Amino acid sequence: MDVLKQKILSEGKVLSDTVLKVDSFLNHQIDPVLMQEIGKEFAQRFKGFDITKILTLESSGIAPAVMTGLTLGVPVVFARKRKSLTLTDHLYSAEVYSFTKKESNEISISQDFISSEDTVLIMDDFLANGQAVFGMIDILNQAKARIAGIGIVIEKGFQEGGKKIRQQGYHVETLANIAKLSDGNVTFKKEETCI
Amino acid sequence: MDVLKQKILSEGKVLSDTVLKVDSFLNHQIDPVLMQEIGKEFAQRFKGFDITKILTLESSGIAPAVMTGLTLGVPVVFARKRKSLTLTDHLYSAEVYSFTKKESNEISISQDFISSEDTVLIMDDFLANGQAVFGMIDILNQAKARIAGIGIVIEKGFQEGGKKIRQQGYHVETLANIAKLSDGNVTFKKEETCI
């Protein structure tokens, strides 16, 4: 997705060979117009998949997921990273380790909002090691929901997550797939559109 | 805002005289079409305020804020509830106590995204005791930004936050202001549109 890649090239900050900071439009400050474009792009790519719900993870997944849900005409459920007092039981949960934050979180959703009747699009802002996506797959398996595919805004294609997920047969759509981060530069892969 | 009030009446769950659960369309599952309507409503109410940025708080503030930002044509910044490893210093921070979660969090934003040049609309999903809004006011005062006003999706008008904030002279727009929660029923106040 060219407009996203241009934004990454102009505003992304390469902090190391593994860390790309996109806080100016996705992870801290959000560009709503770009999110709308991202939503339209995912809706186009997953058109005809009979999606009934989108599942994402707080917080940075919410904006692109809501814009995609708006275009597809389906609700978005965001998994929470810890239990709150108003969501105490009746949950599907999974353990997710964040390599960025070096901590483990339980992610969970209420059993009220995803069921075996649902065909779900999993979405997230970043895909690196795949921990968050595997956590969401785990949750959807508990709910016996069908997984339509996985929509990722930015994939770190040089890490293992995308490969592992595709090897398990999931359809992954990545809007900007990064081949390499080095010397302050971002090199993109060609877009992955195959299973 | 009638469509929101109808949604609260049909899907909200009154768990006690102080707790209203709206997990089916705002706080856990999100209704993107309703969020778009909410965004348009806030944009209409704050038209002419020369807003340059929206400040909200993760996670439930993000969806309504992004939709408002889309209509107003301005970026959204969401304050984070704890520091992450990629956002370690160069922050404006404030302490916020959550009565719902019975815990204190530090909320913070990067100094990169709000400055003394900005006129900011503060947004949040709920207003009860006002702790989160006062935290965001604190942050904006540190940044020397102008505060255009405060946009709240659901106000618990029977708690003190809204009164305290209005007494300090802030312009507060509330889309659904609740006078009372009792016996499973929600009673709304008239909408507050005055300073």
From TrEMBL, chains A, B:
It catalyses: XMP + diphosphate = xanthine + 5-phospho-alpha-D-ribose 1-diphosphate. InterPro entries: PRTase-like, PRTase_dom, Pur/Pyrimidine_PRTase, Xanthine_PRibTrfase. It is found in: Cytoplasm. 5-phospho-alpha-D-ribose 1-diphosphate binds at A128, N129, G130, Q131, A132. GO terms for molecular function: xanthine phosphoribosyltransferase activity. Keywords: Cytoplasm, Glycosyltransferase, Purine salvage, Transferase. Homodimer. This is Xanthine phosphoribosyltransferase.
